[in-house]
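URGENT: need a sanity check before tomorrow's submission.

F., can you look over the Aspartyl/glutamyl-tRNA(Asn/Gln) amidotransferase subunit B record below? I want to be sure the sequence and structure line up before it goes out.
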Amino acid sequence: MKQYETVIGLEVHVELATKTKIFCGCSTEFGGAPNTHTCPVCTGMPGSLPVLNKKVVEFALKAGLAANCQIHQYCKFDRKNYFYPDNPQNYQISQLYLPICHDGWVEIETSAGKKKIRIHEMHMEEDAGKLIHDEWEDCSLVDYNRSGVPLIEIVSEPDMRSSEEVIAYLEKLRCMMQYLGVSDCKLQEGSMRADVNLSVREVGAEEFGTRTEMKNLNSFKAIARAIEGERERQIELIEEGKAVTQETRRWDDNKEYSYAMRSKEDAKDYRYFPDPDLPPIHISDAWIEKIKAEQPELREVKQARYQEEYGLPAYDAGILTESRHLAGLFEETAAIYGNAKKTANWFMGEVLRLTKDKAMDAEQVSFSPKHLADLLVMVEKSEVSPQNAKKVFEKVFEEDIDPVVYIEEHGLKIVEDTGLLEETINRILDANPGPLSELLGGKDKVMGFFVGQIMKEMKGKANPASVRETLMKEVEKRK
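Structure tokens as predicted:
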């Protein structure tokens, strides 16, 4: 039986997090009322002229340098000509002949180990508008708010061989862009989109098979399903002696099936030519060096530093660095509290648990590092029980309250009243003669039952160590 190999390359579109669009001053904010973030430039009105947003070039350089790309210090924009209702000019301003970045690579890690994925190029371009299909009115409406939002398109070489490698590559790009601060990469808002170019060939063959391009992929799970579905479809065609057609296909994630949209275009079909309204871009050595000097610490470097500087296990360092924002909160908290390992334990437990329970993005977490550090100090000094501290932290997490004030106002501070503790212990021992008899008979496991009952009676305001010590004394008296 023939064995087949999947060959995959990706075209990843990343919306840049500039405040204004690539060639005009309109807002790039997501979610505005339709056609409210528009002007004559981004709606393609005759006579309007584009003016390049310098921040777009800066963000593209940041991304390219982080992905080990070469920089075209002389680059320019081209017009990609095609008609589509959400493309108001009937052309898209992009880069074909001299893209800003080229010949880079990123390293991914999968169950099979590490692998370099080559990047053919990374170029700047403008986004198109968005078509909204109204099934009730049987019509399509267009919203031009997204038209002119700056993009970088990252074109990989066909180096990936499985959906696992594709997802690892996309996660690597997303994390990198978020760390750089050039994009939020929210797939659900369309600020990161991937088109999958896929072909299959017999294992050992040197020539690539006929590729198809799949669009409409808005989640990593959809991308993985689309890859498996298209792989099976192409193999089935080959096994039946039929030819795979080079075409663009649209993936329907609900039906888990793709269908043909149009024949796959090549560059010549778009009749590219240099944009006459935009002058070439000259990128100086000094500008590149300045951006290199300003690059933030990326995840891999941060992971290694956490292990070396804080003595954290590799797993913990990996989890804590998944989000640049959460990593920042962790570092600030650890610096104030003075104990990185205990801070890491709290983040790995309570912070991530609450983030998951409340279905929040990591970037939405907004408590003050000082408030968490103050709470951890109180736990360490036995001024509040660990159980009550977790309850207090939920308030810190939700409302960023001052835990010191909250604990004082709600009477949650541990009470060091020996008389009250002895009285409570004896009352509970008297109320539970059966377990007391077992404890007196040498069944030490019953000790946990009594400690729990005492802590409950004291409403978590007793020091667990004091409870256990005093309980043992009172039990000894009864022997």
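My own read: The first helix runs from residue 54 to 66. The longest strand covers residues 113-126. If you see anything odd, call me.
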